[in-house]
Specification:
single chain, 3-stranded antiparallel β-sheet, 14 helices
């Protein structure tokens, strides 16, 4: 029997960091992998749809603009990892806000961050099942023809995804996720590359859709109101598609202290954002060139392509495997938050603090904490059940992303930067930063409005426990 407190024993010599915790081993490569895992999701395959709503000019400009904004604000957040007074570490986004801003803003940050993280884990459960359903449907279409009615239930896949997450959720903390993130990054590159390759093949064949500088045409592709709402939603999708601020501080907390964490994090952010921007532009623009204004919401799971079916199967398998790993990247901060609170409130509880050394087949000796086992298993079961009951939750996730993008990606990093650098009120720099905050607030509000309209449509079409046709 071993208490968690032994991990923080300064007498452990070289195995601890300056804060007494287990020595961090994160590097530029692992941080970049975490960022790519967090940023490049299956949403990259929906960017062709987003470009179709906005057109060549606005779509491309918005993609590049929000890449720059996200990188810029991420460098501000990276500089805030250490507290302004003694340079002590801040382990979570809430800790950073507490150190620089304090007050009610700490609670608002926690609400936005953990609300988003819970939403994302539920959304990943649904998206992974949709990708696995697409494999079954691709095989069905190949055997029976593209016009066949191929109905597949996604509930067994959600249950399987949940069982896998129950096992993976016993990984003790974020520091042990590096291998999963590197694997997930490889998977995301794989399916994004397949999507790009199939789009290039379609363009080369000459069988392309109609594209315009302004995207979908009112009166031809959409009506006037749909054009407005879908443009808002597409802008919000692009803005939030880069947003990894909700896990940036937790990623930075995995880095070794030399060279300085903020310098490594900035390089990792540049590498991550640059890589994802290249893939986003390729997927969005080449996908739009292939499908035109009728681009599907996701050109792999919505069957923009039917053949070669085996390649579609492989790409969708890569999506599911990526989401299995990405779930943990977004769930671990939730696990750590609850466990840290419980450890502080009930430090004498053996159920919460004690760990038991067990010999597991293939894994060897492994430390089991009963509270971690029960609580994390319960969380995974809850998110899986919610995903099963509300299969339209991805529409809700769009709304959560739109609402949380502004405070977590823009407002808090800018406010903390102003506090840290003592930027004078009404100076040119201060005015420029406030204009950036205002612009992104407007984008968030418009995106939220578009998401609400899309959510209403999804709810109207909702059929509980219905197979995916």
């Amino acid at each position: 029997m071993k208490s968690l407190d032994t991990e923080h024993n300064p007498s452990a010599g070289n195995n601890v960091d300056d804060d007494g915790k287990e020595k961090r081993t994160g590097t530029l490569m692992t941080a970049s992998a975490h960022i790519i895992t967090a940023v490049i999701g299956s949403g990259v395959l929906s960017l062709a749809w987003a470009i179709a709503q906005l057109g060549w000019v606005a779509g491309t400009v918005i993609l590049v603009t929000f890449a720059i904004i996200n990188y810029y604000t991420s460098t501000m957040l990276a500089d805030c990892y250490r507290s302004p007074d003694a340079g002590t570490r801040n382990y979570t986004y809430m800790d950073v806000v507490r150190a620089y801003l304090g007050g009610r803003k700490v609670q608002l940050c926690g609400l936005a961050q953990y609300g988003s993280l819970v939403g994302v884990t539920i959304g990943f459960t649904i998206t992974a099942s949709i990708s696995l359903v697409a494999i079954g449907k691709a095989n069905c279409f190949h055997d029976k023809g593209h016009g066949a009615k191929c109905s597949v239930s996604n509930y067994p896949y959600m249950a399987t995804f949940g069982i896998i997450q129950i096992i993976l959720s016993q990984i003790p903390n974020f520091h042990k996720l590096s291998f999963l993130s590197i694997f997930a990054a490889i998977m995301s590159f794989s399916y994004a590359s397949i999507g790009i390759g199939l789009s290039i093949a379609t363009v080369a064949s000459g069988k392309v859709g109609k594209t315009t500088l302004t995207g979908t045409v009112v009166g031809v592709d959409v009506n006037a109101s749909d054009k407005i709402w879908k443009s808002f939603q597409a802008t919000g999708d692009i803005a939030s598609s880069y947003a990894y601020s909700i896990v940036l501080v937790e990623i930075q907390d995995t880095l070794r202290s030399s060279p300085p964490e903020n310098k490594v994090m900035k390089k990792a952010s540049l590498a991550g954002v640059s890589t994802t921007t290249v893939f986003y532009i390729l997927c969005g623009c080449i996908g739009y060139a292939a499908f035109g204004n009728n681009a599907p919401g996701d050109f792999l799971t919505d069957f923009g392509f039917y053949e070669p079916y085996w390649l579609i199967d492989f790409a969708n398998a890569c999506i599911a495997l990526h989401l299995i790993a990405a779930y943990q990247v977004f769930a671990q901060p939730i696990f750590q938050f609850v466990e840290s609170k419980c450890n502080k409130k009930w430090p004498e509880s053996n159920f919460i603090t004690n760990e038991h050394l067990m010999n597991l087949p293939l894994l060897g000796k492994y430390r089991i904490n009963l509270f971690r086992l029960v609580w994390r298993t319960g969380y995974v079961i809850l998110t899986t059940v919610v995903a099963m009951i509300f299969p339209f939750f991805n529409a809700i996730l769009g709304l959560i992303g739109a609402v949380s993008f502004w405070p977590l990606t823009v407002y808090f990093p800018v406010e903390m930067h102003i506090s840290q650098k003592n930027v004078k009120q009404y100076s040119l720099r201060w005015i420029g930063l406030q204009l950036l905050v205002l612009l992104c607030l407007i984008v968030s509000l418009l995106a939220a409005t578009g998401s609400i309209v899309g959510l209403i449509t999804s709810v109207k079409a909702y059929k509980p426990f219905h197979n995916l046709d």
